[in-house]
Amino acid sequence: MLSLMNSEIIVVGSFEVNCVVLWKDPRAAWVIDPGADPEAILDFLSKNGLEVALYFLTHGHIDHVSALDALLAARPAPVHLHTDDVTFAFSPMNRFPPYLSVPARPSSLVPTPADAPPLAAGGITAEMIHTPGHTPGCQCLWVKEDKLLLSGDTLFAGSVGRTDLPGGSSQALQRSLRRLTALPSDTLVIPGHGPTTTLAIEKHDNPYLGE
Ligand SMILES: [Zn+2]
Ligand SMILES: [Zn+2]
Q: What pLDDT shows up at residue 78?
């Protein structure tokens, strides 16, 4: 039973968020951080014959969630977001007018507590690693079998997430980064913004990792 995981990065919106689509089974794709440009995401899904099994939000910031309404209308599926970002994510405080609007709280929202069991659908299994610091409810997605980490706004190529926004904590971020650097060095990292990298490169070159 050998099935390779497919992944596609769709860069969306003026904040250039990496919306990631993962799938092994085309009937059960995962959509991570649908932050803007719902037409582009839906177009990709249609062209590749993909149905959506679930949405995963690395955190609640508007640039990672604003396309949810449009996507859910066309492709309903559960939406996973850490409990600690739920209130903020769907409140009027979470806005960037006039460009991005706050989505309604989805009826299919699954608030995730820390240390929840792994997500599994369509032949893909991923652990949710709670990585507070950029926001209280930041979560990274760790696909162990494929050594793939979706690091959201916690870890970037050569940098880390800012902690000066509401709910941010540099101490929490440091602890979260230590959880990530404990993963295998040959892990491929897809951050929430910017180029992909590996943990080996970041452990060696990233000045914020302190190693
Ligand atoms: Zn953010
Ligand atoms: Zn972001």
A: 98
CB 58 within 8 A of CB 152: yes
pTM over 0.90: yes
Choose the weakest-confidence range: 2-6, 131-135, 177-181.
Answer: 2-6
The span from the CA of 190 to the CA of 35, in Å, is: 15
Show the domain range for 39.
6-205
Cα 11 to middle of ligand 2, angstroms: 12
Distance 2 CA to ligand 2 centre (A): 34
Q: Is residue 1 part of a domain?
A: no
Residue 1 Cα to ligand 2 middle (Å): 36
Number of domains within the chain: 1
- Tell me if the bond preceding 117 is cis, omega within 30° of 0: no
What CATH number does residue 70 fall under?
3.60.15.10
* Cα-based distances in Å from 86 to 12, 79, 125, 165: 22, 11, 23, 16
CA 188 to chain centre: 14
